[in-house]
TrEMBL record:
Keywords: Repeat, TPR repeat. The lineage of its organism: Eukaryota, Viridiplantae, Streptophyta, Embryophyta, Tracheophyta. The keyword Transport does not apply. PANTHER family: STRESS-INDUCED-PHOSPHOPROTEIN 1, TPR REPEAT CONTAINING PROTEIN. TPR repeats lie at residues 21-54, 109-142. This is Tetratricopeptide repeat (TPR)-like superfamily protein. It comes from Rhododendron griersonianum. SMART domains: TPR. GO terms for molecular function: Hsp90 protein binding. It comes from the Eukaryota. InterPro entries: TPR-like_helical_dom_sf, TPR_2, TPR_rpt.
Amino acid sequence: MNIDKCLVSDFDKYAGLYAYHSCLKDQGNEFFKSGNYLKAAALYTQAIKLDPSNHTLYRNGAKSRHFEYWKDIGYMYIHNRAAAFLHLVKLNKALADAETAITLNPVWEKGYFRKGCVLEAMERYDDALAAFQIALQHNPQSSEVSKKIKRLTQLAKDKKRVQEVETMRSNIDMAKHLDELKSELSEIYGADESWKEIFSFVVETMEAAVKSWHETSKVDGRVYFVLDKEKTETDKYAPVVNIDKAFESPHTHSSCFEFLRQYAVDSYSHAACLVAPKSIISYPQVWKGQGSRKWKHGQDDGFFVQFESPFSRKLWFVPSSTEKGQILCSDPVVLDISVHEVLPRLFKVHGDHQ
C-alpha cells in the first residue's frame, strides 16, 4: 500500500490504514527489541506520518474519524520513537518527541518517564528529576520511576560535590588559615613592615605546594629561603635548596640539618620554609609515637610545611585525599613543632628584633 497517495473519504475503506498502522508499530517494536534502533525509528516515523494533521492524507469525515483513533494511540508512536532516538544518542530529537507525547497525553506517566531519561542522558539532572517526579505523581506505584528518582537524587548530589571539589581545588587561599602566624609576626616586628614580606612568603610557598599536589600528586622536598636583598651573594646562594635525600636515615638527616643551618647564616636569610611530602620521610617518622607524640591525623597522605625564623617556628601538615576522582588537599593542620618537628631549629634565637 502506498500510504502517501492514499486519499480516502469513506471511513469503511479506512480499515486497511489501521491495519497498516498496527503493522508499522509491530515491526518497529521488533527492530527496537533486536537493537536496530535506526530501522525502528524509521518505521515509527512512517506511522507518525499518519497524523490527521497531515492534510495530504485525509479529507472530510475520514480525517475527523481518524483523529479520534490517532488521539488514542498517536502519542505511543512518538514516545517509542523518542526511545529509539535516545538509543541513537539523538538527544534533541528524543527530547522533542518526549515533549510531544506529553502534549498529546498529559496524564500518561511514560511520556514524563521518557523525558526524564533523555534529560538524564543530557546530564541535566535537576530537570530529569523534575520529570520523573511528575511521572511518579501519575503512577505512584511505579518502582521503575522510584528507582530513577533515587538514582537522579544521588547523581545530582554527586555532580554538586564534583563542582565543589573543583572549586576548592582551583580557589586556593592559605592566608585564611594562617591568622595565628600573621598576628604573631605583626606583634614581633611591630612597626617594621618587613613581617608582611615574610608572611606573604609563607602563604605563597604553601599555595604553590598545594597547587603542585593537585596537579601532579606530589611536591618536591625543598627548603625555600627569604634572602637579604642587600647582603646575600645571589651568585652563590639560591633561594631554594633541594632536600629530597635528607630523610633517608639519621645520618643524612643530621648532615642536611647542619648544612641548612650554615646556609641560613651564610646567605643572610631572614626566614625559611620547608616543604616535605610524608612519603619521602623514612626518618624522622614524626607521625609515629606514643603519649604526647601520638599522631592524631589518621593515615592520610600529604606533606609537611615547616616555617623557620629567628623569632618564630611553625609546623603544619596538609592532608590529601581522593574525592570524586580528584586529588584534594584538606585545610592545613597545625602541629606542635616541639613534638613533631621535621628538622631542628635552623636559626639561632634572637632575644629582641633588631
